Amino acid sequence: MSNLEKFFCWRKNALAASKAHPDKPHELSPLISQDEVSKMLDFITDLINEHARNVFKDFDIVMQLYLDGRRDDRLYRFFKSCRKPFLIYRSIVFMLTEERMIDPDLNNFIKLLGKFNDSFFLENNSYATKLRAAFNKIKDNSFPEHVPTSGFASRFGELKSEILHFFDEMEKKQSVDINSYHDLRKLLKHMLNYFQIFAYLNRDEISLHKFYEISQLVDVMGDTHDTAIQQSLKGEVEYIKYKVAIEAGLFSRVREALTLSQ
To answer: Is the predicted pLDDT of residue 15 greater than 90, yes or no?
Structure first.
């Protein structure tokens, strides 16, 4: 079993175990050390290079099948599973490095892959040829180590404060535009990806609890965003005018989890 397979196997089992026992842990973990920042970066760099080698060797062949008109769940799962590790990598680089940004060509590939996946089952997917061109720019790349940040604590605090501010503002309005809703989801995914990597490497109970709670909210928000995208693609609604009702208590469990000590 590869390191990537071990990680996603742990992820699946950890979420299932947390769902069965959702109560918050009683013991709080210490603040992350600089050694742990470096450890997480080394791990994610090795993981993403392994993932790139695995998917890039088949990507062009699978894309050609798509361009030839094939539209089925197996192909769809390939492209969806291709994107997820890159999103985790992008979050860890954002959270733990001085530069905060991944390679621009890789970032463009990730963005186009997301838009391509949203439009996957359309007969004329305008993102397909753009995605292939973006892939050709990175297919021979390896992804180097990044410089660890020395200011993780302040960066983490800023991100947490921004998320909690989003919660407060959205709960006051009770209904928000889809762009703001999606912006919040992207910030939450940075937190989620950080906590799942830290929990995996350290088997840390408090980080696992936070990962679980955030993942539940991110999934709910993702379903809402997918509905907005699909209705927009069908011409039923203009995406930028789509409004999301904020249910009472939607953010309560994640708010509680984030206010536990790291």
So the answer is: no
**How many residues in the chain?**
262
Contact 8, 238 (CB under 8 A): no
167: left (phi over 0), alpha (psi -120 to 50) or beta: alpha
Q: Note whether residue 171 is domain-resident.
A: yes
Give per-residue pLDDT as tens, 78-98: 999 999 999 999 999 999 998
pLDDT of 30 reads: 46
Asked which of 138, 169, 197 is the last residue of a domain, the reply is 138
Kindly give, in sequence order, each residue whose CB lies less than 8 Å from that of residue 97, ignoring residues fewer than 6 positions away.
41, 146, 147, 148, 149
Q: Is 117 a domain residue?
A: yes
Output the CA–CA distances (angstroms, integers) from residue 38 to 90, 154, 160, 249, in the order listed.
16, 17, 21, 37
Residue 8 domain-assigned (yes or no)? no
pLDDT 10s digits, 160-214:
999 999 999 999 998 999 999 999 999 999 999 999 999 999 888 888 999 999 9
> How many domains are there within the chain?
2
Examine the domain organization and report whether 103 and 173 are in the same domain: no
**Residue 176: phi, psi to the nearest 5?**
-135, 160
Q: What is the per-residue pLDDT for 28?
A: 44
Structural domain boundaries enclosing 127: 31-138
Eight-state DSSP code of residue 238:
-
Indicate if 118 and 164 belong to the same structural domain.
no
Contact 111, 87 (CB under 8 A): no
Element containing residue 244 per DSSP (H, E): strand 243-245
Assess if residue 7 is contained within a domain: no
